User: Which sequence fits this backbone?
Protein backbone atom coordinates (compact mmCIF):
# COMPACT_ATOMS: atom_id res chain seq x y z
CA UNK A 1 0.00 0.00 0.00
CA UNK A 2 1.01 3.60 -0.47
CA UNK A 3 1.07 6.07 2.40
CA UNK A 4 2.23 9.66 2.52
CA UNK A 5 4.97 10.21 5.10
CA UNK A 6 6.20 13.74 5.76
CA UNK A 7 4.78 14.77 2.40
CA UNK A 8 6.40 11.95 0.37
CA UNK A 9 4.77 8.75 -0.82
CA UNK A 10 6.16 5.55 0.57
CA UNK A 11 5.38 1.87 -0.09
CA UNK A 12 4.60 -0.31 2.93
CA UNK A 13 3.16 -3.79 3.26
CA UNK A 14 -0.61 -3.86 3.76
CA UNK A 15 -1.49 -3.50 7.42
CA UNK A 16 1.91 -2.16 8.41
CA UNK A 17 2.06 -0.61 11.86
CA UNK A 18 3.55 2.70 12.91
CA UNK A 19 6.51 0.80 14.37
CA UNK A 20 7.12 -0.86 10.99
CA UNK A 21 7.01 2.52 9.29
CA UNK A 22 9.51 3.95 11.77
CA UNK A 23 11.73 0.94 11.27
CA UNK A 24 11.62 1.51 7.52
CA UNK A 25 12.80 5.06 8.28
CA UNK A 26 15.69 3.68 10.39
CA UNK A 27 14.00 4.90 13.55
CA UNK A 28 13.62 2.76 16.62
CA UNK A 29 10.33 2.51 18.48
CA UNK A 30 12.36 3.50 21.54
CA UNK A 31 13.83 6.57 19.83
CA UNK A 32 13.49 9.59 22.09
CA UNK A 33 12.39 12.97 20.89
CA UNK A 34 10.02 11.93 18.11
CA UNK A 35 6.26 12.08 17.73
CA UNK A 36 3.84 10.72 15.16
CA UNK A 37 0.64 12.18 13.76
CA UNK A 38 -1.71 10.31 11.48
CA UNK A 39 -4.31 12.10 9.40
CA UNK A 40 -4.08 15.17 11.61
CA UNK A 41 -4.32 13.44 14.99
CA UNK A 42 -1.61 12.30 17.38
CA UNK A 43 -0.67 8.62 17.68
CA UNK A 44 0.59 8.17 21.24
CA UNK A 45 3.88 6.34 21.65
CA UNK A 46 2.14 3.51 23.52
CA UNK A 47 -0.11 2.97 20.49
CA UNK A 48 2.64 2.83 17.86
CA UNK A 49 2.94 -0.94 18.05
CA UNK A 50 -0.78 -1.59 17.60
CA UNK A 51 -1.70 1.17 15.19
CA UNK A 52 -2.02 -0.20 11.66
CA UNK A 53 -1.85 2.21 8.78
CA UNK A 54 -4.35 2.30 5.95
CA UNK A 55 -3.74 3.10 2.27
CA UNK A 56 -3.37 6.83 1.61
CA UNK A 57 -2.88 7.67 5.28
CA UNK A 58 -1.00 10.89 5.83
CA UNK A 59 1.64 10.38 8.49
CA UNK A 60 3.88 13.01 10.01
CA UNK A 61 7.00 11.98 11.90
CA UNK A 62 8.32 14.96 13.83
CA UNK A 63 11.26 15.83 16.02
CA UNK A 64 12.61 18.89 17.78
CA UNK A 65 14.63 21.42 15.80
CA UNK A 66 15.96 24.89 16.54
CA UNK A 67 13.12 27.35 16.72
CA UNK A 68 11.28 30.03 18.59
CA UNK B 1 26.18 41.14 52.00
CA UNK B 2 22.43 41.22 52.42
CA UNK B 3 21.72 42.80 49.05
CA UNK B 4 23.71 40.11 47.26
CA UNK B 5 21.79 37.42 49.12
CA UNK B 6 18.49 39.02 48.14
CA UNK B 7 19.71 39.11 44.56
CA UNK B 8 20.46 35.39 44.65
CA UNK B 9 16.96 34.63 45.88
CA UNK B 10 15.35 36.75 43.19
CA UNK B 11 14.14 33.92 40.98
CA UNK B 12 11.86 33.77 38.01
CA UNK B 13 9.04 31.47 39.11
CA UNK B 14 6.82 29.84 36.49
CA UNK B 15 4.24 27.28 37.56
CA UNK B 16 6.11 26.76 40.83
CA UNK B 17 9.49 26.17 39.16
CA UNK B 18 12.36 28.45 40.05
CA UNK B 19 14.92 29.81 37.61
CA UNK B 20 17.91 31.96 38.50
CA UNK B 21 18.07 33.37 34.99
CA UNK B 22 15.30 35.63 33.72
CA UNK B 23 16.39 35.19 30.14
CA UNK B 24 14.76 32.55 27.95
CA UNK B 25 16.63 31.74 24.76
CA UNK B 26 14.83 31.01 21.53
CA UNK B 27 17.07 28.75 19.50
CA UNK B 28 15.77 29.61 16.03
CA UNK B 29 18.27 31.12 13.63
CA UNK B 30 21.52 29.97 15.24
CA UNK B 31 24.18 29.31 12.58
CA UNK B 32 25.12 25.93 14.09
CA UNK B 33 24.55 23.74 17.11
CA UNK B 34 28.08 24.57 18.34
CA UNK B 35 27.47 28.31 18.27
CA UNK B 36 24.06 27.76 19.82
CA UNK B 37 25.61 25.82 22.67
CA UNK B 38 28.18 28.55 23.33
CA UNK B 39 25.42 31.18 23.19
CA UNK B 40 23.27 29.20 25.65
CA UNK B 41 26.19 29.07 28.08
CA UNK B 42 27.06 32.76 27.60
CA UNK B 43 23.43 33.77 28.08
CA UNK B 44 23.14 31.96 31.41
CA UNK B 45 19.66 30.86 30.40
CA UNK B 46 17.99 27.84 31.95
CA UNK B 47 15.14 27.56 29.43
CA UNK B 48 15.49 27.15 25.67
CA UNK B 49 12.76 26.85 23.07
CA UNK B 50 12.58 24.32 20.25
CA UNK B 51 10.13 23.76 17.40
CA UNK B 52 8.59 20.53 16.07
CA UNK B 53 9.36 19.77 12.43
CA UNK B 54 9.48 16.81 10.05
CA UNK B 55 12.34 14.46 10.75
CA UNK B 56 15.07 14.43 8.11
CA UNK B 57 17.84 12.00 7.34
CA UNK B 58 20.55 14.48 8.28
CA UNK B 59 22.88 13.07 10.92
CA UNK B 60 23.95 16.54 12.06
CA UNK B 61 23.15 15.98 15.73
CA UNK B 62 20.07 17.23 17.49
CA UNK B 63 19.19 20.45 19.20
CA UNK B 64 18.20 18.18 22.09
CA UNK B 65 21.87 17.26 22.53
CA UNK B 66 22.55 20.94 23.16
CA UNK B 67 19.65 21.09 25.60
CA UNK B 68 20.93 18.04 27.44
CA UNK B 69 24.57 19.15 27.60
CA UNK B 70 23.67 22.60 28.91
CA UNK B 71 21.16 21.26 31.43
CA UNK B 72 18.41 23.59 30.26
CA UNK B 73 14.69 22.95 30.45
CA UNK B 74 13.29 22.48 26.98
CA UNK B 75 10.30 24.63 26.05
CA UNK B 76 8.70 23.43 22.82
CA UNK B 77 6.71 25.93 20.81
CA UNK B 78 3.91 25.71 18.28
CA UNK B 79 5.63 27.91 15.72
CA UNK B 80 4.04 27.79 12.30
CA UNK B 81 0.49 27.11 13.52
CA UNK B 82 -2.28 29.31 12.17
CA UNK B 83 -5.26 27.73 13.93
CA UNK B 84 -6.14 26.66 17.46
CA UNK B 85 -6.54 23.09 16.24
CA UNK B 86 -3.06 22.89 14.70
CA UNK B 87 -1.53 24.46 17.79
CA UNK B 88 -3.27 22.03 20.15
CA UNK B 89 -2.17 19.00 18.10
CA UNK B 90 1.37 20.36 17.83
CA UNK B 91 1.52 20.92 21.60
CA UNK B 92 0.42 17.32 22.18
CA UNK B 93 3.00 16.03 19.72
CA UNK B 94 5.68 18.05 21.50
CA UNK B 95 4.57 16.69 24.86
CA UNK B 96 4.78 13.17 23.47
CA UNK B 97 8.19 13.68 21.89
CA UNK B 98 9.86 15.71 24.62
CA UNK B 99 8.09 14.49 27.75
CA UNK B 100 7.21 17.97 28.95
CA UNK B 101 3.81 19.53 29.51
CA UNK B 102 5.24 23.03 29.09
CA UNK B 103 4.35 24.73 25.84
CA UNK B 104 5.14 28.10 24.34
CA UNK B 105 1.88 28.61 22.54
CA UNK B 106 2.08 30.47 19.24
CA UNK B 107 -0.85 30.93 16.89
CA UNK B 108 0.11 33.21 14.06
CA UNK B 109 -2.28 35.33 12.00
CA UNK B 110 -0.22 35.76 8.85
CA UNK B 111 3.28 35.27 7.53
CA UNK B 112 4.09 38.91 6.89
CA UNK B 113 3.50 40.24 10.40
CA UNK B 114 3.75 36.98 12.36
CA UNK B 115 1.40 38.68 14.81
CA UNK B 116 -0.59 36.43 17.14
CA UNK B 117 -4.13 35.48 16.08
CA UNK B 118 -5.85 36.41 19.35
CA UNK B 119 -9.13 34.50 18.99
CA UNK B 120 -7.52 31.15 18.18
CA UNK B 121 -4.75 31.82 20.70
CA UNK B 122 -7.23 32.15 23.54
CA UNK B 123 -9.17 29.11 22.33
CA UNK B 124 -6.01 26.98 22.14
CA UNK B 125 -4.79 28.23 25.51
CA UNK B 126 -8.03 27.21 27.17
CA UNK B 127 -7.97 23.73 25.58
CA UNK B 128 -4.34 23.14 26.54
CA UNK B 129 -4.76 24.31 30.15
CA UNK B 130 -7.74 21.96 30.37
CA UNK B 131 -5.49 19.17 29.06
CA UNK B 132 -2.91 19.76 31.81
CA UNK B 133 -0.38 21.89 29.97
CA UNK B 134 1.67 24.71 31.47
CA UNK B 135 0.83 27.28 28.81
CA UNK B 136 3.06 30.25 28.00
CA UNK B 137 1.27 32.13 25.24
CA UNK B 138 3.00 34.47 22.81
CA UNK B 139 0.49 37.32 22.73
CA UNK B 140 -0.16 40.76 21.35
CA UNK B 141 0.71 43.68 23.62
CA UNK B 142 -2.98 43.93 24.40
CA UNK B 143 -3.88 44.29 28.09
CA UNK B 144 -7.34 42.79 27.52
CA UNK B 145 -6.01 39.69 25.78
CA UNK B 146 -3.29 39.29 28.41
CA UNK B 147 -5.95 39.38 31.10
CA UNK B 148 -8.12 36.84 29.29
CA UNK B 149 -5.16 34.49 28.83
CA UNK B 150 -4.46 34.70 32.53
CA UNK B 151 -8.12 34.04 33.29
CA UNK B 152 -8.14 30.79 31.33
CA UNK B 153 -5.19 29.58 33.38
CA UNK B 154 -2.01 30.41 31.49
CA UNK B 155 1.10 30.13 33.68
CA UNK B 156 2.56 33.32 32.22
CA UNK B 157 1.77 35.80 29.49
CA UNK B 158 4.29 36.70 26.83
CA UNK B 159 3.36 39.94 25.10
CA UNK B 160 5.41 41.05 22.13
CA UNK B 161 7.50 44.20 22.17
CA UNK B 162 7.46 44.34 18.36
CA UNK B 163 6.97 41.77 15.58
CA UNK B 164 9.13 38.63 15.67
CA UNK B 165 12.60 39.23 14.26
CA UNK B 166 11.96 42.95 13.73
CA UNK B 167 14.47 44.00 16.39
CA UNK B 168 12.39 47.14 16.96
CA UNK B 169 12.34 47.03 20.74
CA UNK B 170 9.25 47.86 22.76
CA UNK B 171 6.93 49.80 20.49
CA UNK B 172 4.19 50.34 23.04
CA UNK B 173 5.64 50.62 26.54
CA UNK B 174 2.36 52.10 27.78
CA UNK B 175 0.42 48.95 26.92
CA UNK B 176 3.15 46.86 28.49
CA UNK B 177 2.87 48.91 31.67
CA UNK B 178 -0.88 48.30 31.83
CA UNK B 179 -0.34 44.56 31.30
CA UNK B 180 2.30 44.56 34.06
CA UNK B 181 0.11 46.44 36.51
CA UNK B 182 -2.75 44.02 36.18
CA UNK B 183 -0.98 40.68 35.78
CA UNK B 184 -0.85 38.13 38.58
CA UNK B 185 1.28 35.73 36.53
CA UNK B 186 4.79 36.40 35.21
CA UNK B 187 4.90 38.72 32.22
CA UNK B 188 7.70 37.75 29.86
CA UNK B 189 8.51 40.02 26.96
CA UNK B 190 8.62 37.91 23.82
CA UNK B 191 9.73 39.21 20.44
CA UNK B 192 11.04 42.60 19.47
CA UNK B 193 14.32 42.70 21.35
CA UNK B 194 17.01 43.91 18.94
CA UNK B 195 19.87 44.55 21.30
CA UNK B 196 20.82 44.63 24.96
CA UNK B 197 19.14 47.94 25.85
CA UNK B 198 15.73 46.64 24.70
CA UNK B 199 16.00 43.77 27.16
CA UNK B 200 17.09 46.14 29.93
CA UNK B 201 14.09 48.39 29.29
CA UNK B 202 11.70 45.44 29.48
CA UNK B 203 13.14 44.42 32.82
CA UNK B 204 13.17 48.00 34.14
CA UNK B 205 9.47 48.26 33.31
CA UNK B 206 8.89 45.23 35.54
CA UNK B 207 8.80 42.23 33.23
CA UNK B 208 9.57 38.98 35.01
CA UNK B 209 11.70 37.83 32.12
CA UNK B 210 12.61 38.27 28.48
CA UNK B 211 12.57 35.75 25.67
CA UNK B 212 15.19 36.47 23.02
CA UNK B 213 15.92 34.55 19.85
CA UNK B 214 16.94 36.46 16.71
CA UNK B 215 18.69 39.28 18.56
CA UNK B 216 21.17 36.69 19.79
CA UNK B 217 21.14 33.94 17.18
CA UNK B 218 21.33 36.31 14.20
CA UNK B 219 23.77 38.81 15.72
CA UNK B 220 27.12 39.05 13.99
CA UNK B 221 28.65 37.49 17.10
CA UNK B 222 25.88 35.50 18.78
CA UNK B 223 27.94 34.45 21.80
CA UNK B 224 29.00 38.02 22.56
CA UNK B 225 25.41 39.25 22.20
CA UNK B 226 24.21 36.45 24.48
CA UNK B 227 26.52 37.76 27.18
CA UNK B 228 25.44 41.37 26.53
CA UNK B 229 21.77 40.51 26.83
CA UNK B 230 22.37 38.41 29.93
CA UNK B 231 23.94 41.44 31.58
CA UNK B 232 21.18 43.73 30.32
CA UNK B 233 18.50 41.48 31.81
CA UNK B 234 20.34 41.39 35.12
CA UNK B 235 20.94 45.15 35.10
CA UNK B 236 17.35 45.91 34.16
CA UNK B 237 16.05 43.64 36.90
CA UNK B 238 18.27 45.24 39.53
CA UNK B 239 17.22 48.71 38.37
CA UNK B 240 13.58 47.68 38.65
CA UNK B 241 14.12 46.40 42.18
CA UNK B 242 16.18 49.48 43.08
CA UNK B 243 13.35 51.87 42.18
CA UNK B 244 14.22 54.55 39.70
CA UNK B 245 13.97 58.30 40.35
CA UNK B 246 11.01 60.11 38.82
CA UNK B 247 11.49 61.74 35.44
CA UNK B 248 11.35 65.54 35.57
CA UNK B 249 11.44 68.27 32.99
CA UNK B 250 13.80 70.46 34.99
CA UNK B 251 16.94 69.84 36.98
CA UNK B 252 16.94 68.60 40.56
CA UNK B 253 20.27 69.35 42.22
CA UNK B 254 21.97 66.39 43.77
CA UNK B 255 24.28 68.56 45.88
CA UNK B 256 22.95 70.45 48.89
CA UNK B 257 22.63 74.25 48.61
CA UNK B 258 23.30 74.76 52.31
CA UNK B 259 26.79 75.84 53.19
CA UNK B 260 27.61 77.08 49.74
CA UNK B 261 30.65 79.36 49.76
CA UNK B 262 30.36 83.07 49.09
CA UNK B 263 32.87 83.61 46.34
CA UNK B 264 31.95 87.17 45.48
CA UNK B 265 35.05 89.23 44.70
CA UNK B 266 34.72 91.51 47.78
CA UNK B 267 36.80 94.62 47.67
CA UNK B 268 37.91 96.25 50.97
Assistant:
Amino acid sequence: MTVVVNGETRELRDGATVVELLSAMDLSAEARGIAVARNGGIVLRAEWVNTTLAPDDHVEVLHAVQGG
Amino acid sequence: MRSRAAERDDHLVIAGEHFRSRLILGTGGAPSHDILEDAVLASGTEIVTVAMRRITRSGAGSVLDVVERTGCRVLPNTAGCYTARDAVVTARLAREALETNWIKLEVIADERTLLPEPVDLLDAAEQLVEDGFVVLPYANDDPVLAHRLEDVGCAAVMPLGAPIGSGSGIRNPYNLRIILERARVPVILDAGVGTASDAAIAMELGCAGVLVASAITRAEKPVLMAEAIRKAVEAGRLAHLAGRIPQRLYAEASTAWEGIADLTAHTG
In short: The longest helix of chain A spans residues 18-24. The longest strand of chain A covers residues 58-66. Residues 39 and 58 of chain A are 5 Å apart (CA to CA). Chain A touches chain B at residues 6-7, 25, 27, 32-37, 40-42, 44-45, 60-68 (CB under 8 Å).
